[in-house]
Amino acid sequence: MSKFIAFDVETPNRMNNRMSAIGISVIEDGAIVDEFYTLVNPETGFDYFNTMLTGISEDMIWDSPTFPELWEKIEPIMSGGLLVAHNAVFDLGVLKKCLNDYGIEWRPYVRYICTVQMGRRLMPGISHRLNDMCERFGIELSHHQAASDSRACAKILLKYIAAGADIRQFIRTCRLKDKEE
Questions:
Q1: DSSP state, 138?
Q2: Distances from the Cα of 165 to the Cαs of 44, 82, 109, 118, 158, in angstroms?
């Protein structure tokens, strides 16, 4: 693998079934070569907690693309390499819910790496929260900001690869399509 798509999403409420922002960092041949960020109109309400955590409010997103509008732009990026996320279960869960709820066909399964799970196996006995790992590795972070979080995830992956980690043993598969009844 020489191309990775590190991504991070922020959500507007505790339902975690819509995005209010997405950040994407593209890694090719050991370097971040492209980045993408946008706010997303989740077409739903915001919880106070999420607004305080992310700094994203309902007033900020009304001119932003909805997920289906955004997907047209990011699908080629997301399809271009192995997906990577820090706590991938969360980010892939939100992506899956958005795809299914809007009836968007992509693929039934996607391959990915979770840098939390990778870190727990490579460096056991320490905290693998994103802010803690960034502090450990000297990576700048504006936590719960999707662009910064995706860039930090990409840099953590690059640190693990530079240290000799064989990423093949960390590749997992996520079902994106809900089972048909």
A1: T
A2: 41, 16, 24, 9, 10
pLDDT at site 179:
67
Q: Which amino acid is at 114?
A: C
Distance CA 40, CA 21 (A): 5
Q: Are 86 and 152 in contact (CB under 8 A)?
A: yes
Q: Between β-strands 3-10 and 172-175, what pairing exists: parallel, antiparallel or unpaired?
A: unpaired
pLDDT 10s digits, 15-29: 999 999 999 999 999
Q: Are 41 and 66 in contact (CB under 8 A)?
A: yes
Asked if residue 27 lies in contact with residue 100, where contact means CB atoms within 8 angstroms, the answer is no
The continuous run of DSSP H or E covering 128 comes out as none
Radius of gyration of the chain (CA): 16
Residue 68 tokens, joined: 């289906």
Q: Which amino acid, 156?
A: I
- Whole-angstrom distance, CA of residue 82 vs CA of residue 75: 13
Angstrom CA distances, 113 to 5, 59, 67, 174, stand at 10, 34, 23, 10
| pLDDT tens, position by position, 61-117 | 999 999 999 999 999 999 999 999 999 999 999 999 999 999 999 999 999 999 999
In the block, which residue shows the tokens 């009844």?
181
pLDDT in tens, 159-172: 999 999 999 999 99
CA distance 117 to 174: 14
